[in-house]
């Protein structure tokens, strides 16, 4: 039973790594999603966030719903977050995307202040 549990745990871990990468499973085959091509939703969100956070030193938006626009992951690093708690940083991002969020199923936000 222990060997089966380890095997199951290792399989789940591998699946989670796959989900976090740029790889997509299609009909049992692992393929790579070309991250150089952004979806319309990703482009729209990037434009909004660039306008709202012009001092952002790093910004990455990824549609993690497979391209349908239901869920996004946002990584943004900006000096505009300096002195704010994480919850306040996330509130700023949520406020900037207020209209877009209404049509989403979920949103993952990762914020940070640039290291000097």
From TrEMBL:
InterPro entries (UniProt xref): BolA, BolA-like_sf, Mt_Fe-S_assembly_factor
Keyword entries, A-Z: Mitochondrion
Entry's localization field: Mitochondrion
Keyword Mitochondrion: yes
GO CC terms in record: mitochondrial matrix
First-listed, main subcellular location of the protein, grouped into a coarse class: mitochondrion
PANTHER family xref list: BOLA-LIKE PROTEIN 3 (PTHR46188:SF1)
Stated role: Acts as a mitochondrial iron-sulfur (Fe-S) cluster assembly factor that facilitates (Fe-S) cluster insertion into a subset of mitochondrial proteins. Probably acts together with NFU1.
Family: Belongs to the BolA/IbaG family.
Subunit structure: Interacts with NFU1.
Protein name as catalogued: BolA-like protein 3
């Amino acid at each position: 039973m222990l060997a089966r549990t380890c095997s199951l745990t290792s399989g789940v871990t591998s699946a989670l790594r796959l989900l976090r990468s740029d790889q997509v499973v299609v009909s049992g085959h692992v393929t790579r999603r070309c991250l150089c091509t952004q979806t319309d939703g990703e482009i729209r969100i990037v434009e909004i966030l660039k306008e709202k956070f012009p001092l952002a030193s790093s910004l990455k938006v990824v549609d993690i719903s497979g391209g349908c626009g239901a869920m996004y992951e946002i990584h943004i690093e900006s000096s505009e977050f300096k002195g704010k708690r994480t919850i306040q940083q996330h509130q700023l991002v949520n406020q900037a995307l207020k209209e877009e969020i209404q049509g989403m199923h979920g949103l993952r936000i990762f914020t940070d202040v640039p290291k000097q």
